[in-house]
Specification:
Length: 482
Amino acid sequence: MDAAASSIALDSVRIARRQLRNGSPDSSRFQTSVRFHFANGQRDYESSQALKVSTDLNGERSGALSRSNFFGPCEKRNQVRQTFCSAGVCTYDGTAVESDSHAAEEKVGVLLLNLGGPETLHDVQPFLFNLFADPDIIRLPRLFRFLQKPLAQLISVIRAPKSREGYAAIGGGSPLRKITDEQAQALKGALEAKNMSANVYVGMRYWYPFTEEAVQQIKRDRITRLVVLPLYPQYSISTTGSSVRVIQNAFKEDAYLSTVPVSIIQSWYQREGYIKSMADLIQKELESFSNPEEAVIFFSAHGVPVSYIVDAGDPYKDQMEECIYLIMQELKSRGVNNQHKLAYQSRVGPVEWLKPYTDEVLVELGKKGVKSLLAVPVSFVSEHIETLEEIDMEYRELALESGVENWGRVPALGCTSSFITDLADAVIETLPSATALSSPRTSSNSLDLDPVNYAIKMFFGSILAFLLLLSPKMITAFKNHL
């Protein structure tokens, strides 16, 4: 109840109790409600709480209270347990979600997670450093983890010149932050249209605004219930997993945040709204071909190293394949029976990544006589360098050189209304399951505690670091950088 309401004298208080149905033979469930009526005609407020009373074998009775629901001044409730109100508390499927206008103690927040990207060419090298310094991106053995940052510095300096060329080709920086901010505003509006008030935040993993900054803003705003929504349809330890780890660490270390109920949407590639939104975009782009039925639908997904799947149990590959299956089933239900192909792009370094590789498949399709190709960036919901430069420029040129004559590309979902509406539904559906984050397990290893093993690790690690730093490629890179 807000301060204004609490300062008004009560005219009456009505307490009622009723027994709920569907109780088991040895237990009873009751709901107690308290209704406050104010003397000056203010609208009523009501609080309710459920009590379950059980009888054991000895005839003794015990009870347990469920969580309380507080209902503010609502206009009316419908028969499917949804509450419609102009202000105050709105309920969804029986769970109360309070807006801050009438219940300052309950403030809902939604945190959108994304990769982030350099906004200027000057930002490219530090952005790459942040990327490769993430242990979920470059997974070093425990013996060499103290080399994470030196190795990240090496890779970022070497790769920066080529990356700058890519960002220069798309306008001098990544549009990812602008697009994600627009998605946040659109999501806030979609939630409000569904009678849910929420603060929507943006947290980037490797550039501003960093996830850590968003978490601190959530604390300053005294958010009391949070939904974490990664803008990655499929889960991977290198995307959702990495960002969630940052959130877990921040919440674990803070006295206030550690008590905030949080619900994390791990993946949402299988949601009907997302599948239909993707099918809509594909169907629309197919119509631009002179012979739409001849075009091959070419899904290009961001790749991950095979070791993530085999050694770390990353579900990304399975989820991606299921996602493609669901999209194609939706298209087939609409009479679209085009052939399709899935491949993986953006591999880095000498390790094996998920196959088939996008560049190799494009050459192969050209040799097979495919003349029309529709590229679909399936793992991205925002335009950024991997769509605007890698797909639109590099892969398009390669496809045309390989014999493809008609090239098309499906845009990223961005702020497509059906997509944003589905994200709003996902937030509303998951909010009731929010619970305080448990502290992530910290595994101690005897190798880190044994001084002899630690000395050996440092000795051999230092030799490796010394060799890396003195390598001709590293020296040349640093000279060019300076």
